[in-house]
Amino acid sequence: MTIEPGLYHLLFISTALFFIGVYGFLTRRNLITMLMSIELILNSVNINFIAFNKYLWANRLDGVMFTVFVIAIAAAEAAVAIAIIINLYRSHQSIDVQKAEELKY
Amino acid sequence: MNGATVIFYLLAAMTIGCGVMAVSTRQIFRAAISLLFSLVGIAGIYFWMDYQFIAAVQIVVYVGGIVVLIIFSIFLTQQSGEKMPVQKMGRKLFSLLAVFCGFALTIVQIFQHTFAKTTAAPTGVTVRNIGEELISLDKNGYALPFEVVSILLLAALIGCIVIAMRTPAEAPKEEVEAKRKEEIKVILPKEEEILIVQEETGGIQ
């Protein structure tokens, strides 16, 4: 591993971001912060796609296309998730996942 | 160590540092701002890799769209100055352990693997090339996913409206009560008439 940034450095960043997102998803109990962790995970995947496209398959554009589609799906997911969160807040006066437990029993 | 290397390490430190802040701080608004800077750092990494189109999309959709949406929902759903409750120590420790094990495993796997590189001449990542690939009908074209994503976005749009719409049960109570009283008024006189008729005839024998 050299000091010159390359594929391995980018993979390190994306792995670190992915596990930061997983840590947030496991420890947070607030729906908005859990959504933020999911955004971090999706972004780490995007970095992976772009890095592989640039350093391994520079003659193709598949990594770029996948990144564009992941971003579009992430936007749709965030919009629906926030509509659900606001509706949950309207009915429970809280967005804590511990308070929404009707389906638990 | 030239300028590009220094910029790369600065962007990487900004991305990871702000990401850690976003999942660890107890003030939710501060977490949202940290997420914003982390996403800006990722856009900077895309710029550094010469993928200007993806970097622009990242800034427009994530920083301009999703983070603003998250900040709106924070304002709508809670007091932004309030701190979130402290999590249990056991849960934190367990999550940290799980995350550390997963991270170590993945990193060891990545650094032991040597990736095979293609020898073909690279194509330019211009907006023109991306657009042509997006609507091409070839074997490697992305016309079908493009259409499917457009339907997904339409479904998300309609879904958001339906979720955010008030259901009939949530309609103002006074209106419902008034309607029910009117219905009862309509029904009641008939019942009285029936009773009177029954009394006059001495009921059903």
Number of strands of chain A: 0
Helix-strand topology string of chain A: HHH
* Average pLDDT score of chain A: 89
The figure for the number of domains of chain B is 3
Number of domains of chain A: 1
CATH class of chain A: Mainly Alpha
Query: First CA to last CA of chain A: what distance?
Result: 52 Å
* Biggest beta sheet attributes of chain B: none
Oligomeric status of the shown chains? Answer: heterodimer
* Name of the CATH homologous superfamily of the largest domain in chain B: NADH-ubiquinone/plastoquinone oxidoreductase chain 6, subunit NuoJ
Explain this structure.
The complex is a heterodimer of chains A (105) and B (205). Chain A is an all-alpha fold and 105 residues long. Chain A has helices at residues 7-27, 31-55, 62-92. Chain A has a single domain (7-92), classed as Helix Hairpins (Orthogonal Bundle), CATH 1.10.287. Chain A has 3 helices and no strands. Chain A is elongated. With 205 residues, chain B is mainly alpha-helical. Chain B is built from 7 helices and no strands. Chain B has helices at 3-24, 28-48, 52-77, 89-112, 127-135, 143-164, 173-201. Chain B starts with a helix and ends with a helix. The relative contact order of chain B is 0.05. The chains are: A mainly alpha (105), B mainly alpha (205). At the A-B interface, helix 1, helix 2 and helix 3 of A face helix 1, helix 2, helix 3, helix 4 and helix 5 of B.
Task: Briefly say what this structure is.
Chain A has 105 residues and is mainly alpha-helical.
Keywords:
heterodimer, A: 105 residues, mainly alpha, Helix Hairpins, 73% helix, B: 205 residues, Four Helix Bundle (Hemerythrin (Met), subunit A), 3 domains, 7 helices, 75% helix, extended
